[in-house]
Structure formats: C-alpha cells, structure tokens
Structure prediction request, 231 residues.
Amino acid sequence: MRYLDVVFCLFLENINKQPMNHLKIFFFVLLLPLNLLAQESGKHFFVFLNTNPNKEQLDSVRIAQLQEKHLANIDRLYTEGKIIAAGPFYGGGGLFIFKESSIENVQNLLQTDPAIAAKRFLIEIYPLRFIEGQVCSYDDPAEMITHSFIRIFQQRSEKTENSMGKLLRNYGNELLTSAVFELDQGGFAVLDTDFDILKKQVPILLNDTEEKVSIRQLYIAKGTFCRASKK
Prediction:
C-alpha cells in the first residue's frame, strides 16, 4: 500500500521540523476494559492513534529506523487485507480502519508493529458500524486530499445516530461517511465541508453543551471514504 508510505513519510517530514518533544510518529495499544471489547458486532474496527505525552525521547537515527519498519508493517497489513484505511490528522495522531473478525485479532496485529514497542501513541480501538457511506477503493497511485473529520465522544448509540442524522440533513452530499462506535462509545463523520465553517457550525448544531465533539483535518487518499457502493 504505497499511498500509506506517502502519508506517513509526509507526516514524519513535517514533524521532524519540530522540537523532539513534539514528535508524534508511533503508537502503543491502550487496552479498553475487556468486558467492553468482548462484544464485537462486526468486522470493521476503528483505531485512533493519540499522541502519548509520556513518550520516550529518541534520536533521529532511531526514529528513522522505527519509521521504516513501521511503514513496512502497514504495507504488509494492507496487502493482506487487514488495514483498509489509514491517515494522519493535522497536528498529530492518526487513524486506522481494520477489517478483522475480532478486537483481539486487531490487538495482535497492532502488536506486530515495531512502533508499538516504542510507545509513541496511545491507541483506542472500537467496533464500527457504518450509517452513511463506507470505506471504498481508490485509484493507484493515490491522490492525497484533506477531509474534515468530526468525532463525537462517548454517548448512547441512539443519540450518536441522531447526531449523524443532523449532519446529513445539514450537509447533504458533503457528508461522505458516518459511523457509530459500538458499545455507546460515540462515532465519527467525514465531510467535504470547509474545516473553518464546520468548527463554527457543528458545536451549535450538535449542542456541544451535551455532546463532546472534536473537529479535525484528516489527510488521506482520495476515495477512501465515499457514499457510493464499495467497488
């Protein structure tokens, strides 16, 4: 999956211009309570890569070595059909979407990445159920674009679905994909709407006094998220 090399190498290039304490390259798995993880409801699993504030400071040689192995592992997982989407957020962190039979399998696959041992990121893993759109195929070589990404934090699935309905009614075809994290863990939406507009409108639309909402920019291959049927 060569587009991931582009994504994460650009990510590395940008952050290497920052002080060492701002490096946000790798990650480790933060296990959710097992009683929550045992209730898989599907074959798609969403992984958030969150910056670990307590990560070890590494020299540039060690970082480059880990990055090379990290990208090789991503390529392998994509070739095997395990990872179906990946990309970084502006400002740090990123996402993976896995297609697997269980969260335990996803955890085991993440453990194959040398970056996990470096403990550069905190990881969240959620079973995923799509509401609108899905993960689709994209052209090779991929064209990299920026989408707006909305995360709704922990709340009942019914309330999350209602929030996604509000987004669909207000933004129409600009909403490419929306999904619920099972077990009342919130959800996400990907839109082709201007980021600055969303930052002003969405908290009001979703009543941010009750719903904790995060709006970020996501850099990913064009066509990864789509409303059309999967190819």
User: Anything to note?
Assistant: The longest helix spans residues 60-79. The domain at 2-226 is CATH 3.30.70.1060 (Alpha-Beta Plaits).
